[in-house]
Amino acid sequence: MLQDSSPLDTFESERPRLRALAYRMLGSGAEADDAVQETWLRYDRTDLSEVQNLAAWLTTVVSRVCLNLLRARQARHEESLESFTADWLGAADDDRIPQEEAELADSVGLAMLVVLDRLSPAERIAFVLHDMFDVAFDDIAHMMERSPAAVRQLASRARAKVRGTTTRPADAAHRRHAVEAYLAATRTGDFAALLTLLDPEIELRADASVTGAGRPLTLHGALAVARSALSAAPRANFTVLALVDGSPALVMAPLGRLSLVIRFVFDGTAISSIDIIADPERLHTLEITLV
């Protein structure tokens, strides 16, 4: 039973997970060990009687330690890949196990380590925690002492940078095809088809004129955005493809009067954000060409 275990035994049961987490954040086995050791020291001198979720508490501590290490590294202008390489070459000299490092490197991918090194410390923490360890944005926000919206934006920027090294941007033909497919799926109520077009972390923004509630609306995530699109299916019959400021978009013009524009932004080949505009002043600033 957990309550019968010594503090050291309890911590040791969490050590492999914490080291894997720290390694992905830092890209260096030596620094990961340092981060886990610092987490142990804080664990050992903290009264945890009121802590209900020890695993979450330890994740918070090791994440903050890693964030501080990344910031210090950035201040020194060090390259984490150099640290990783030195770690690898020095493994035989300090009784470290090269196979363990190889397994960790293989699980992340050396190319990914290089890519992660291009992220800011905050972007890296948010991306690793959410995309690699499936930690909720609300929990990451608590760890990083930021708002959930800010953390979500950090992860989104990091994801765009990561994908930018491996994914070709969508060309004009693909963007047009995707917008046409979005309209077709909305008209037919094809929820599955919509999901294939959307980035999992897509953000939809609708101005106050769209909502009619006097305030704008923001939706996050493919499920929420797809549901919203299907709820607008009746209006899709009045919607057509157009070029808005030169990019494929959708315009709604019942009885020939422009009332709404839907603009799309792509991350690679997926739709990463949607901007719905109905404010008359904003509409008048757009250059619209029907296709």
TrEMBL record:
Residues 113-161 form the RNA polymerase sigma factor 70 region 4 type domain. Gene3D superfamilies: 1.10.1740.10, Winged helix-like DNA-binding domain superfamily/Winged helix DNA-binding domain (1.10.10.10). GO terms for molecular function: DNA binding; sigma factor activity. GO terms for biological process: DNA-templated transcription initiation. It comes from the Bacteria. Pfam families: Sigma70_r2, Sigma70_r4_2. InterPro entries: ECF_Sigma-70_Domain, NTF2-like_dom_sf, RNA_pol_sigma-70_dom, RNA_pol_sigma70_r2, RNA_pol_sigma70_r4_t2, RNA_pol_sigma_r2, RNA_pol_sigma_r3/r4-like, WH-like_DNA-bd_sf. Residues 11-74 form the RNA polymerase sigma-70 region domain. Keywords: Sigma factor, Transcription, Transcription regulation. NCBIfam families: sigma70-ECF. Interacts transiently with the RNA polymerase catalytic core formed by RpoA, RpoB, RpoC and RpoZ (2 alpha, 1 beta, 1 beta' and 1 omega subunit) to form the RNA polymerase holoenzyme that can initiate transcription. Belongs to the sigma-70 factor family. ECF subfamily. This is RNA polymerase sigma-70 factor, ECF subfamily. The lineage of its organism: Bacteria, Bacillati, Actinomycetota, Actinomycetes, Streptosporangiales.
